[in-house]
Amino acid sequence: MDIAAQVFAHLEMAVIKVIEPSAFELAGPSFWWLERFFFQTSPSNATLTPLETSPFFDDFLEQSQSVWRSPEQHSLTSGPWIEVDDAGREWPFDAQAIHDHGQRLLLITHLGASYAERVEILQSSRERLLDNERLEAEVSRRTQQLKEREEEVANRLLAAGGYRDQETGAHVKRIGLYSAAMAKALGWPPLRIDDLRVAAPMHDLGKIGIPDRVLLKPGRLDEDEFEIMKTHAELGARILSDTGIPMIEMARHIAWSHHEKWNGMGYPRQLQQDEIPIEARIVSVVDVYDAMIHKRVYKQPIAESETLHFIRTSANTHFDPRIVEAFLDIYDTIKAIKDRVQEHENDQPSPF
Amino acid sequence: MIQKKICMLGSFAVGKTSLVQRYVTSQFSEKYLTTVGVKVDKKVVQIEDQEVKLMLWDLAGNDVFSPLNMSYLRGMAGYILVIDGTRIKSFESALTIYHTCQQKYRQAAVQVAVNKVDIQEQWEVTDAHLAQLHDLGIEINLTSAKTAQAVEDIFIKLARA
Ligand SMILES: Nc1nc2c(ncn2[C@@H]2O[C@H](COP(=O)(O)OP(=O)(O)O)[C@@H](O)[C@H]2O)c(=O)[nH]1
Ligand SMILES: [Mg+2]
């Protein structure tokens, strides 16, 4: 056997000359698997006749005609394909049609050990990829569940507090939605936006501990009464403390600091500027907005234009100027929430 | 006899091989054996008074390890875009494949098989996702290679197309 033949034998590559578009002649060593594709009258006769039993190979032969007929030099590779024998075993092959310097060739290679190796590597990589995908899906499913449970807890807390004053279900729902819209405008990540939507409605949770004579008093509060009223901020913070749940932590900051003012003149701790948690700065703007434009037992609603004027002119004194700016930027969204979420369709004590 | 080349396309492990196996041999295996390269199966179906020979090309799932070899698609009459309902990623790759095919094989008929409907309670693919496909004008079939649900349908629809 010459060197070329040895190489072909080693590679398990059948080298076939193309005499006519459908007349083939074996040029190198023969292999038992050639009988899958060709009929050979005897081992000594090099003439091969296609059997037309392998759809993939037949298709490849058909495509190859253009390579062999082409006046130019040309080649076409089949890519790996698999033949299945009667026992269900799989045999991988690869084929090439070549037209080079007037020589027309068909090469068929039985892909051996290296192919098996490649399959094995692919198999394990894909299994790992599947595991990762499953894990990812599981994590996002669990996060979702957790968020739902947290929201449920928040709803129960709100329901337990009841709505004894103007803080109706629709109002707290709107505060959540306005705040989320603001957080979105400020570029917060989605999970935190959602936390804020659920946390913001709990800003007045501490009113649970304020006696009716103060909370429900129709007229103005006197100084002592106002002092009592002010305790709702700290009370709310205490109710919401020590949970270790980020959303509730957020709610705690909001309850504690939503009456603070940018200039340090708020309550209960006289925090100023960046000392006031951002979530509380957001809620303070939207809470004032919603309270002003709605009717209360002790007041008529204030016009939108007047309310906006008040908010604009309270930047730097009452409110964080950047939050006011964001509020005015998304005012259309805010207004849409206000119009959509109204008491009459939502006078049940459940806020969500 | 009319002959039609039908390609099975979709992410890996969505059930392409299983759907062909269910259709051709009426069998199903839980075991996942990755396909590398192409395997072609044949099935002759009777459409009215015509016999149609379907050549079912089961292609290796495309993923980061082995991108879809477009040359395998030459001359296809139609394709089945398979999605694993339990894996949102397979929905995303189906969309990518669809858009790729639309560029070169716009005339090819397409049926979407959202597979593994036997475990629909574990699905991540939602009605909203399916609506997206619907909006592209693609016919959606909920299939199971395991229970055989709608398997024959998708092949027959392509044989008729
Ligand atoms: N439950 C269920 N499993 C399926 C279904 N179809 C395929 N599988 C499983 O999904 C895995 C991948 O299937 P396979 O056909 O190899 O996917 P391919 O990579 O797209 O060819 C295998 O473990 C199959 O047993 C189905 O309809 N239902
Ligand atoms: Mg497969």
What features would you describe in this structure?
The complex is a heterodimer of chains A (352) and B (161). Chain A is of the alpha+beta class and 352 residues long. Chain A has 2 domains: 3-110, Beta-Lactamase, CATH 3.30.450; 150-345, Hypothetical protein af1432 (Orthogonal Bundle). In chain A, 51% of the residues lie in helices and 13% in strands. Chain A has helices at 3-11, 55-69, 113-161, 169-185, 190-199, 212-215, 223-239, 246-257, 278-293, 304-313, 321-329, 331-340; strands at 13-20, 23-26, 38-39, 47-50, 74-77, 81-84, 90-100, 103-110. In chain A, strands 1, 2, 3, 4, 5, 6, 7 and 8 form an 8-stranded antiparallel sheet that branches. In chain A, a hairpin with a 5-residue loop joins strand 6 (81-84) and strand 7 (90-100). The longest helix of chain A is centred in the middle third of the chain and has 49 residues, at 113-161. The model of chain A is unreliable at 345-352 (pLDDT under 50). With 161 residues, chain B is of the alpha/beta class. Chain B has one domain (2-160): Rossmann fold (3-Layer(aba) Sandwich), CATH 3.40.50.300. Chain B has 4 helices and 6 strands; from the N terminus they run E-H-E-E-E-H-E-H-E-H. A 6-stranded mixed sheet of chain B has the order 2-3-1-4-5-6, sandwiched between helices. In chain B, strand 5 (109-115), helix 3 (127-135) and strand 6 form a beta-alpha-beta unit. The radius of gyration of chain B is 15 Å and the shape is globular. The model of chain B has no long low-confidence stretch (mean pLDDT 91). The A-B interface holds A 54-56, 59, 63, 79-82, 84, 90, 92, 115, 118-119, 122-123, 125-127, 129-130, 133, 137 and B 5, 12-13, 32-40, 42, 55, 57, 61, 63-66, 69, 71-72, 74-75, 86-89, 124. Bound molecules: guanosine-5'-diphosphate and magnesium ion. Guanosine-5'-diphosphate is lined by residues 10, 12-18, 29-32, 35, 61, 115-116, 118-119, 144-146 of chain B.
